[in-house]
Design brief:
With 348 residues, the protein is mainly beta. The chain has one helix at residues 3-19; strands at residues 28-34, 37-45, 50-57, 69-75, 80-88, 92-98, 103-108, 112-117, 122-127, 133-139, 144-149, 153-158, 163-169, 179-185, 190-195, 201-206, 211-217, 222-228, 233-238, 241-242, 245-246, 252-257, 262-268, 272-279, 284-290, 296-302, 307-314, 319-325, 330-335, 340-345. The strands form eight sheets. It has a four-stranded antiparallel sheet, with no helix packed on it. A four-stranded antiparallel sheet has the order 2-3-4-5, with no helix packed on it. Strands 6-7-8-9 form a four-stranded antiparallel sheet, with no helix packed on it.
Length: 348
């Protein structure tokens, strides 16, 4: 399917689902779904209404005495796990997803990137990506996958060939930079990578040339990152961490204007933001924030004025991942303390 046709299908589906959204301006938890042990990355395919959660250890269907990693497959219509895909024994962190091709990319810290088929819930292949891969970002229009590597690189994968086609150096390498969250704007073909350092920044890569075109200073230790492709805003969660040390700093989201590559706002949130996700249609931004031991919360932000609409305490203790289903106005937060996926209804 050509990019123009994919975008048309996406927008038509978006409008149809909006007409079915009868939620009121209220927030509530609608489900808590048991998944595997220590769930991390979360991704949503809005076209199939399937949610994927990367678990460090699995709860199997059927049960097993072994405990390799799994990816839980959740039916969004019934909020229940319908399958678990065994992926290996390495430390899983981030998930990326191509909604049109129904492919899921799982970054495993030691063994590269697992490619999953969303139609059959099976592992297609493993792409050996070195340098500690952590977060994949997908451009479905160019069928490219960008994977951050903690030792200072961005790997570019080809969806058709399932191989590495380019390695993009970022900054000064090990112990100087640490790439983490990745976000892609498929319309402008720009890639945004968070540099998890005390004096943090965001790298901007041109997807046409694979060249670094800008470095944007943001807050302390940026980790999660997301793009609103309709408003051309990039949102960066500044986590206030430097490795295992939690420091005293401002709890803010940085807002970058894609047109100028400048920070245009700093949004204060309740606690240390680690992940951020965007509802493009409603121009809502969600920030998952970690507080004191045993608590975390979700901030809801109005993208029009960068004001915080609400901060909602959640029942778990640690946010391992965050995703939004724009079509159904639902937010998904993984909690690796209760080993569950929390389903949260957003404001209309």
């Amino acid at each position: 399917m050509k990019p123009s046709k994919m975008l048309t299908v996406f927008l038509i589906t978006l409008v149809m689902q909006l007409c079915l959204d009868n939620s009121i301006f209220a927030q509530r938890v609608v489900a808590s779904i048991p998944v595997g042990d220590f769930p991390r990355g979360v991704a949503v395919n809005r076209l199939t209404n399937r949610i994927y959660v990367a678990n460090e250890f699995g709860h199997f269907i059927p049960p097993s005495t072994e405990t390799p990693n799994t990816v839980s497959v959740i039916d969004g219509s019934h909020n229940r796990v319908i399958d678990e895909i065994v992926t290996g024994r390495d430390f899983q962190i981030g998930l990326g997803l191509d909604e049109f091709r129904n492919l899921i990319y799982v970054a495993t810290l030691d063994s590269g990137v697992d490619v999953l088929d969303g139609k059959t819930d099976t592992v297609i292949t493993n792409i050996p990506v070195g340098n500690e891969p952590v977060f994949p970002g997908v451009n479905p229009f160019t069928q490219s996958v960008y994977v951050s590597n903690r030792l200072g690189w961005l790997s570019l994968l080809d969806e058709d060939e399932n191989n590495i086609v380019a390695t993009i150096p970022l900054g000064g390498g090990p112990n100087i930079t640490e790439p983490e969250g990745v976000a892609v704007d498929p319309i402008t073909n720009r890639v945004y990578v968070a540099n998890f350092e005390p004096a943090g920044s965001v790298w901007v890569i041109d997807g046409r040339t694979n060249a670094l075109v800008a470095t944007v200073p943001v807050g302390d230790s940026p980790f999660g990152i997301a793009v609103n492709l309709l408003t051309r805003r990039v949102y960066v969660a500044n986590s206030c961490e430097a490795g295992p040390v939690v420091r005293s700093c401002q709890h803010i989201l940085s807002v970058i204007d894609e047109r100028t590559n400048k920070v245009i706002a700093s949004v204060p949130v309740a606690d240390r933001p680690v992940y951020v996700a965007v509802d493009e249609l409603r121009n809502r931004i969600y920030s998952c924030n970690i507080g004191n031991i045993g608590s975390f919360n979700l901030s809801i932000i109005d993208g029009k004025n960068n004001g915080v609409l609400a901060s909602v305490p959640l029942a778990g203790a640690y946010c391992g991942g965050l995703a939004v289903n724009t079509f159904r106005n639902l937010i998904y937060v993984s909690d690796d303390n209760t080993n569950s996926l929390i389903v949260f209804r957003g404001p209309r």
